[in-house]
Design brief:
Layout (H helix, E strand, L loop, with lengths): L9 E2 L6 H20 L6 H8 L3 H29 L1 H18 L6 H11 L5 H10 L7 H32 L4 H8 L1 H17 L8 H6 L9 H12 L2 H31 L4 H13 L4 H40 L4 H25 L8 H22 L7 H15 L10 H16 L6 E2 L2
Parallel strand pairs: 1-2
InterPro entries: MFS, MFS_dom, MFS_trans_sf, NO3_transporter
Membrane topology: Multi-pass membrane protein
Subcellular location: Membrane
């Protein structure tokens, strides 16, 4: 895919260009998706009592919330190659809002489980966000653009943990019972998602020069030939060992973040004898680090690329992931609340920097099958969350033991970065593209104007 007129700067306060509209709408849409995807997580203590759920059943719902996303992410990346990110995001948001609003109808473990399974499809929004920014921004800033849009999107994991208990508290103050309150609370994110989907359709476009359908009519983009084209791009990505190495890497960072989003509130609630609101506030700090941490991962990826090319991007990814695993093992051993919060923030920093570093590499694996690569790697995050979910559904393992074993797995996964290599020709080509993009850029890549 050869997309022209990519932006070589990120002007945060500019909404006039299609690149910056895509940037802002993509991160905002992904941010709001967390309210649907994980809005129920900080309310689980209430849901547990209302539906009489066991720890094993709670673990199964956690797995359900991320399992279906693996499949949808694989499909959505290829769909982006075919119909473009604008239509893909519009349909995902509008259709995804329906199970979010209907989860309140659940009256048993089985119906609640199915609702969380359906809601999990919303998590595919991440792939569209990364796809859209990847085709809008030049090589010198694509790491920063991808990391910032995803990071501000992931920030929704933190704001969800904080705001959803407050929404429930507001409903309780109006005299609504807890049983009805958590059900009504989930209607709010459902409505917001539907409205966002309509806005995405109205105010964004697929590429700097227009939508994919227009570019194909003008001969500026390769035609889409239906299922054969979709299978060929997916096949090209699936045959590349580097894609699966990044699949494992992303499982070890974003998969861990999804797991913490699901268990953090109830972990602090049970282990430190806190109120639901306080536990949600502390759990929200983990996600709030996304306001800058994932961006740092992308910025450092671009800086390493300036010095050492694509090898530098991979080297930084290894460092971030290794530090994440070590920090997680330390976090699992904390018994004092203050220390647990402090180490959690350090751990969160490296988790999100590793995520930013991962998608600082993804755009350079196979540009002709960008959607398929992004879809497979993005699916890795959810596959990791599914695998981690089994650690926390077992009655035999404590929360601390599960987190410690998860930290060991992350350290081992960091070694997969050794498989991500590029040919000298690709290294030279991308170094030249980086220099050309940076040559037109007289000041910082990330600015307010």
């Amino acid at each position: 895919m050869q997309i022209r007129h990519k932006a070589n700067r990120i002007r945060l306060l500019t909404f006039k260009t299609p690149q910056m509209r895509a940037f802002h709408f993509s991160w905002l849409a992904f941010h709001l998706c967390f309210f649907g995807w994980f809005g129920i997580a900080p309310l689980m203590a209430v849901v547990r009592d209302d539906l009489g759920l066991t720890r094993t059943q709670i673990g199964n719902t956690i797995i359900a919330s991320v399992a279906i996303t693996v499949i949808v992410r694989l499909a959505i990346g290829v769909l982006c190659d075919r119909i473009g990110p604008r239509l893909a995001y519009t349909w995902l948001l509008c259709l995804g809002s329906l199970p979010v609003m209907s989860i309140g109808l659940a009256d048993s473990f089985e119906s609640f489980f199915l609702a969380r399974l359906a809601i999990g499809a919303i998590g595919a929004s991440f792939v569209i966000t990364q796809y859209h920014t990847s085709i809008m921004f030049a090589p010198n800033v694509v790491g920063t653009a991808n990391a910032t849009s995803a990071g501000w999107g992931n920030l929704g994991g933190g704001t969800t943990q904080i705001l959803m208990p407050l929404i429930l508290s507001g409903l309780l103050m109006l005299g609504v019972s807890e049983t009805l309150g958590w059900r009504l609370a989930m209607v709010v994110p459902g409505i917001v998602l539907f409205i966002t989907g309509i806005c995405y359709y109205l105010f964004t476009q697929d590429a700097p020069d227009g939508n994919f359908s227009e570019l194909r009519q003008r001969g500026e983009l390769e035609p889409s030939s239906g299922s054969n084209s979709m299978s060929s791009t997916f096949g090209a990505a699936a045959r590349d060992i580097r894609v699966w190495a990044l699949f494992v890497v992303y499982a070890a960072c974003f998969g861990v973040e999804l797991t913490i989003n699901n268990i953090a509130a109830i972990y602090f609630f049970d282990n430190f004898d806190l109120s639901l609101a306080t536990a949600g506030l502390i759990a929200g700090l983990f996600g709030l680090m996304n306001i800058f941490a994932r961006t740092m991962g992308g910025v450092l990826s671009d800086l390493f690329a300036r010095r050492s090319g694509l090898r530098g991007r991979v080297r930084w990814l290894f460092i971030a992931l290794l530090c994440e695993g070590v920090a997680l093992m330390f976090f699992s051993q904390m018994q004092a609340l203050a220390l647990a919060i402090g180490i959690m923030l350090v751990f969160s920093l490296f988790v999100q920097m590793a995520e930013g570093a991962t998608f600082g590499v993804v755009p350079f694996i196979n540009q002709r099958a960008l959607g398929a690569v992004a879809g497979i790697v993005g699916a890795g995050g959810n596959a990791g969350a599914v695998a981690a979910g089994f650690l926390f559904r077992s009655e035999a393992l404590s929360w601390q033991q599960g987190l410690f074993y998860l930290g060991i797995a992350v350290v081992v996964a960091s070694l997969c970065t050794l498989l991500v290599r590029f040919s000298p020709e690709v290294e030279e080509q991308q170094a030249q593209a980086y220099s050309e993009a940076a040559g037109d850029n007289g000041d910082s890549a990330l600015s307010l104007r």
